[in-house]
Amino acid sequence: MLEIPCWIYYAIRENVSQRRNVKSIFSIFQKGLQKTATSISRSIGGILTGKEAWNESTYEKLKAALIGADFGVSASTRIVNDLKDRYDRGIIKTTDDIMETARNDIVAMLNRKRIDASLKEGSLNVILIVGVNGSGKTTTAGKLAYLWKNDGKTVMLAACDTFRAAAVEQLKLWAKKTDCHVISSNSGADPSSVAFDAMQSAMAKKYDFLILDTAGRQHTRKGLMEELSKMRRVISKVHPEAPHAVWLTIDASMGTNALIQAKEFLGTAGVTGLILTKLDGTGKGGIVVAIQEEYNLPVIFVGLGEQPEDLQPFDPEMFAKALFESRHA
Ligand SMILES: Nc1nc2c(ncn2[C@@H]2O[C@H](COP(=O)(O)OP(=O)(O)OP(=O)(O)O)[C@@H](O)[C@H]2O)c(=O)[nH]1
Ligand SMILES: [Mg+2]
């Protein structure tokens, strides 16, 4: 089973009891994944036209439909092989059966990945948010602050993107919206010095969470990637266990480029988990599966829309159910 740290679930389940329920969380997944779900149901729905027997062409079309939604060759092949096996054994025969099999296979694949649940309740958790330009780092930092504040936790934000003045203002807006303290400096300051100040302040004031927003950087820019390593070193000098998590935000519409980004950041920034953003804006949400299959990196959160509550802890069951609904029936 995927071991999501229990505090993440607490964060969301507590919210649930106060304001929402599992059904409405599922509706966020459903709405956010609508484009991918529609593209899947269109492409798979048209494959079985009559009562004819399934053949190689059926399987090729099924595989192409899955690859078209960015599930990746490996996951798509596994699902199609499973479909073939089940059809040959007479267990399945309809489009509904295809959807159900794919749904179950995907849940099984996603649940196979384990994560190091090293984040704790009752002490400071330092989260470093990294990623390429425009991938959703600042918005995600703000949405995480929103989520944890609603759970009654104390959250500090640190504007370590000192590259763009607008970035500090953007984070300050989130701090205001979520009623969180923000540490910032002048534009052009060393991001590591902002991180250092924020670390000292969050520790002294016994915050539950410190979320560090960083500047966007292309994974190909060596100097900027080394800047991240320096930040990590400075942070760990203040607290040997920090950062407790390094989360890479990836724009879900990036396709295979997302896989390349993940690889580079994994190497230099010590990424411990992924946040797939903007899933609502793409018909290729299968990338969530492809990226977990390719690297042993768990998807921790998914961005399913523009609203603060649209950042959700990743739930394989809800994800697969939202994608493989039998809408055509
Ligand atoms: N629809 C949608 N939009 C999102 C999501 N996450 C982020 N965005 C939008 O994506 C755009 C870029 O987000 P930012 O948070 O500024 O990205 P960033 O990585 O901080 O950008 P830089 O700091 O410039 O590297 C903004 O317009 C956000 O509103 C999401 O899950 N869904
Ligand atoms: Mg930003």
Blueprint (SSEs and pairs):
Layout: H1 6-18, H2 22-32, H3 34-45, H4 56-68, H5 73-88, H6 95-111, E1 125-130, H7 137-150, E2 155-160, H8 165-178, E3 181-183, H9 191-204, E4 209-214, H10 222-238, E5 245-251, H11 256-269, E6 273-277, H12 287-294, E7 299-303, E8 311-313, H13 316-323
Parallel strand pairs: 1-4, 1-5, 2-3, 2-4, 5-6, 6-7
Antiparallel strand pairs: 7-8
Helix pairs in contact: 2-13, 4-5, 5-6, 6-13, 7-8, 9-10, 11-12
The structure holds guanosine-5'-triphosphate and magnesium ion (MG).
CATH topology of the largest domain: Rossmann fold
Our count of domains comes out at 2
Low-confidence stretches: 1-7, 9-19
Main sheet specs: 8 strands, mixed
Strand runs, count? 8
Short description:
The protein is an alpha/beta fold. It contains 13 helices and eight strands. Bound molecules: guanosine-5'-triphosphate and magnesium ion (MG).
Give keywords.
alpha/beta, Four Helix Bundle (Hemerythrin (Met), subunit A), 2 domains, 12% strand, elongated, disordered N terminus, binds guanosine-5'-triphosphate
